[in-house]
Every structure is written in structure tokens, then in C-alpha cells.
Specification:
two-stranded antiparallel ribbon, 460 residues, globular, 23 helices
Length: 460
Amino acid sequence: MARNSRLRLVRPRALATARRAVTTRRTRPAPRPPEGTPPRAELARQARTVLADAVRIARWAAVERGAGATAPTGPEADPDAVPAQERAAAALDLTPGQVRAGWDRARLAGLVELHGGTARPGWRLHAWDRDDSAVLRGWVALFDAWSLVHPAPEDVAPGAVAEVVEAVPQVLSLLQLSAGPVLVPALLDLLQQRVEELREERCEVPVQGHAPDADAGPDPDGLPALLDWALEGLAAVGALTLGEGQATLTPLGNWAVWVKLEQICVAAQSPAGNIEQSAEDMLRGCARLTPGPARDEYRAWLAARTLSSAVTELLAVARGEDALLRGLAFEALRVVGAPAEAEVRAAAEEASLRPYALLWLAEYDGADPDDAPDVLTREEATWLWVDTAAAVADHGESALLVRHLDSAVQGTVPALLDEVRAVGHPRTVQVLVALAAAHPDPALAKAVRRAAFQVHTGGA
């Protein structure tokens, strides 16, 4: 079966290739959105409205953390974390239920990240008011996770839910092509056809005289309720509106479906004058460059500063929440060379920087870049795989995320998912949701989506 298909085993240099792929953008002109699509600034305004409560709660948690709270510094995803929820509800004039829902959305949108029992602001939260691309990417992450935001009916088999989730993109495509309201019966007909196609593709036709597996897929009689659940879930994240017996994509939903159909990336604009910028802005400005020109920019930026202050600034960026900048910071440190050795060795003691620091040190000690990943333990390599996948999900194209599977050290997808769940990277859920949304193999996407749900809910 596809979910058990072996990953193509490749040399560890694929990790370096994946890092370079994130910084390589297509040079062809981006396709134009459908006529009538609002400007990006208006789409971002709508996304900010959808996530307004989530942002308020995330900022409240950031203030709590800044005040030096010793308890978990936000309303945890755990429903039993009553004190934090009550503090947030009182401070923000929300109900505890609204706080739980907003906190869940904040996590899925990358506004906050959990490190152990402590919440930290995500990089998108810092960029929320000034970066429309960060806002739209945060909303798209929530859109991809709609089935986690809106829990499925408890009396429905998980297999039925999974099949409907796999079929929903077809429903969204019809809504996008219709450019207006679509009657629910028409959506139901399409959903049923798509579910039947999925089952035929997997040869899951019940043998005569044998009852179908209760977990294998939805009963046709149960599809209307599951369609209602899916439409309500998509409405809950602002992707569509529901009327009397009909559904219509919102401008945000219409844009998101178009983006996914075109498989394009909405990348942050590179700022001008990189040499005069801070390390973070300089790295963002170099993100669209290929490795050679980027190294030239790093050298020019370093030449304008004392090396000790430059190294300190680059490592400070690497400790941030943006995985792309973490990888680029260590690329810049490779240009620094020997003056960075002591601080990079110290950074190797920090969990989030350790894989990058070990690779840097291995190459500094003379290892071939293709062989440098051999110094990483399997757990460290898995952490780096998730971190690189987070960078691709945030800044790259969906096809790159699918190809990133090839760089995993595990031999099979189930083994990869088991070890990704165990490694405890704070972006695991977002990475798995994005991979499931991007992968063309429905069976593999289903397995990845199930793993994301298990991590999100704390399951095994």
C-alpha cells in the first residue's frame, strides 16, 4: 500500500539539498489570481479578522511569559489547565470555551509554540501587524487544519471521517470554479462520487456476503451529516459561508483554493539594502537568492561589522522561531569560519540549534558536506528534518515539501511518522498537516493526517 511504500533512500546530502531548495525561488512569473480576487492587503485584513481572538490570546500569553510567570504561560491545549484559561478569560473578556478555541487556533496557525510545558510566541505573531505574507500563511495553516479545528462527530468511524477529509478538496474545487453559491445537494453528489472513486482506487470493494469494515469508510447514508460537518469546519476557519441550503467560498477561501491549485508560493518580499539591515532582515533579504549570490551578501554584511558582534547577532536570529532563518544563519556562519567556532560549539548544547551546529563543526573540521550529516544521531537528524520541513512549509512550495520526504533517514513513511512524533519538535503538527495537504497520494496523506491528529491530541 502507498502508506507503507519505502522512501527512496538517498545520501545524507539531501539534507543540504533541502536547505538550498528552500532558498531557491522560481523565476517564472507567478500566475495571476482569478479576476475579482481582492488585493493581498485586503485578504490579509480578512485573515486578521478571522484570527483576531487567537492573536489576542497569543499576545496575552506572551505578556504573561514576559512577566516571568513560572506556570505554563498560556491557556494550554490541555482542557484541564483551568487557572490559565480563567486568567485569560478574565483579562480578555472571553468565555473559557472561547479561550480554548482561540488557543487551539493560535497553535495551528503558528502564532504560538509549545516547548515542554511553556508557551512561546511564534515568529508569525511578531510579524502579524507588519507582514501580510506571514498573516496569509498563518491563515492557510489554519485552513489546512480545518478538520482539527472542528471536531468530527463522535459516533462516526475514523475511517469515514478520513475519507471525507480526502474528498473535500474536490468539493472546494467545485466551489472555486462555480464562483458563487453552490447548492448542498450538488456538493453531496460530488462528495459521494469522490468517496466512491477513492474506494475503487484502493480496491476496497466489500466481498459479497461479508459486511464492510466499520472503519473502512463512510456509509452513503452518513455522508450528508459528514458533509455538514466539513462545511461547518471550513466555515469555522473563514473559508466559506453557509446559507439556506447552499455554500459559498469567501474571498479568502477562493484565494486559498486557487493558490493550492496553482501550487505557487506567496513569499515575503526581499528588503533592499541588505548590508545596512539587521541580521534578521539581511537573511530575509537573502532568502530569495541562490547560494552563491547569498554568500556574497553575507560577506558584504560581515565586512561592515566586527565579527564577534555579527556572530552573536546571527546566533540570536537562529534561536528565533523561523526555521528558514535558522538555516540561513548557519549558512552565514559558514562564511565567518574560525572566528565563529567557540560560539557555535556552545550553541551545540542547545536542542534547537544542535543539529545545525554539529553540521557546521563537522564541515569546519574538514568533513565533506555530503558526509557531514553522518555526525548526527537519528533523533538529531529527525529534528533537523522537521525543522527544515517547517521552513519549506512556511516559505516554499508544496512540491518542495513532498520532495523533502526523500531526505528523511527513515526507510518507510510509518517509521518516519513514528520518529517524528517521538522527537517532540514544536512545529510537528503544522508540518504534518501541511505535508498531508500537499501530498498527491491519498493513502499516504491519510496516514500523515492521522499522525498530525495524534500529536495534536497527545495520542500515541
